[in-house]
């Protein structure tokens, strides 16, 4: 048990200490951490089922802009561990996880507040010309804080918690256990509703109901609906792209007199090129100091640690200063000059770090290289471009990554996991990370190659909106399938009329299967759209779910 406690403590530590994103990125998701906790504690199937149930609640919880609405890392790891310790039904994992997630908000506040101290130490180190301290301050103090705040409680929970966890479960009456399972069956409605609110475009809402009927009438599973919806989205994307080409300016024939056309014959005139396409592109032919492909790859790899010391005061600043340490050393040989150039990165900065955001760092690197070779690029120019682009990159990156790609893949992975298929969490983790880091690498290299004009080109051509719409269609249809299959409650209400017995659920099924999950999803979706605090919705689901269970109006689908 000591080994299990140590392994879970390490997992809890790195779930917040994001020292290298390709390793730590999915540690924020219960679907990934649930099976790992299960393996570490000797119960992989129970861990996977618990993690998948917890993940459904947090399907639509988007951590954007440095704001964390709930601590999913703590919910997944601590909730799964307590489920295994108490040998409880995986459906009860949700009721264990939610209190931990709320406690986790206090833990993240402590972590990010204490990390602010290391930023000031880094300021002092650069003022003294000591660039070597940047690496240490980015990784070591933040690891110690995460170990104490996240790892130590997890260690104690696993090592000492089995006795009281088992006693807690045994003390709960059977009727209350059933009621809590009803709460667990209702709770995915919140995650689904939050995701629908995030994806919500009135013009696309019909796809949500199409997904519902595919699931309840044709009995298609999540993977089949995802393939079907992807085909629809692709056709719509192609159609919109083709329409834009038809509407774009075409060459036209005009008659004009020139030195080479003295008779005024008809000539073809091409549309004017966008003046921003080549704006700001810097040639490198005469550079004395240049970054090669190996330097770029190393810098991109260091960028994956930009949130190791994430803090409230300047968010990603210390991590990005750590990222630029390698190329700045390559561009400048004088340690004092290196420290001076790194100071510009010790300012507040925050954007989506993995998929779209890297294009900003590629642009900054291109400008740094030009600055080191005597081009007219000031520190203010570099930070002006970085600051101006961090908002648009975050908006696109968070929307596509957290609001579209993640829920689609997590829905498929959770469905496979709940069907007792170990491939589910592996599929989600591998495919999700392969997509975002491949795109992130390409964006980083594209930003470096094109300079500051690259993002302007991407934002102006309108392709982002079309891609987002296409993914949203897939997301809406897949999420509706989840609502039909993973809100696992029905009504056991039965009444007698003479010698006949009437079952309400059978009557509802003749109208349309899945009406109760659909109604619950729509109600919670409406509450989310009305900006009701998710914590109040959680509390309401607890109270109403328990009450309706005791009144025999709701039960768990067997």
Summary of the model, kept short:
The chain contains 23 helices and 6 strands.
Question: What class do helices, strands and sheet pairing give?
Answer: mainly alpha
Through-space gap between termini? 34 Å
Instruction: Tell me the series of helices and strands, N- to C-terminal.
Output: HHHHHHHHHHHHEEHHHHHHHHEEEHHHE
Helical segment tally?
23
Overall 3D form: globular
Main β sheet profile: 2 strands, antiparallel
* Average residue-wise pLDDT: 81
Sheet-strand content, in percent, reads under 5%
**pLDDT < 50 runs, ≥5 residues:** 269-282
* DSSP strand tally: 6
Alpha carbon gyration radius:
27 Å
Give the strand line-up of the largest sheet: 1-2
Q: Name the helicity range.
A: 55-70%
Main location: membrane
Transmembrane segments: 6-23, 35-61, 67-85, 92-111, 139-160, 180-200, 206-238, 424-446, 507-529, 536-557
Organism: Pediococcus acidilactici
Keywords: Cell membrane, Membrane, Phosphotransferase system, Sugar transport, Transmembrane, Transmembrane helix, Transport
3D architecture notes:
With 558 residues, the chain is mainly α. It is built from 23 helices and six strands. A two-stranded antiparallel sheet has the order 1-2. The radius of gyration is 27 Å and the shape is globular.
List the helices and strands and how they pair.
Elements: H1 2-16, H2 21-24, H3 30-40, H4 44-57, H5 72-86, H6 93-127, H7 133-160, H8 162-171, H9 174-186, H10 188-199, H11 206-216, H12 222-247, E1 252-255, E2 266-269, H13 293-303, H14 317-331, H15 335-342, H16 358-372, H17 379-418, H18 423-450, H19 453-460, H20 463-486, E3 489-490, E4 494-497, E5 500-503, H21 504-511, H22 515-529, H23 534-550, E6 555-556
Antiparallel strand pairs: 1-2, 3-6, 4-5
Helix pairs in contact: 1-3, 1-5, 1-7, 3-4, 3-5, 4-5, 4-10, 4-17, 5-6, 5-7, 5-8, 6-7, 7-14, 9-23, 10-20, 10-22, 11-20, 12-20, 13-14, 14-15, 14-16, 16-17, 16-18, 17-18, 17-20, 20-22
InterPro entries: GatZ_KbaZ_carbometab, PTS_IIC_man, PTS_IID_man
Membrane topology: Multi-pass membrane protein
Pfam families: EII-Sor, EIID-AGA
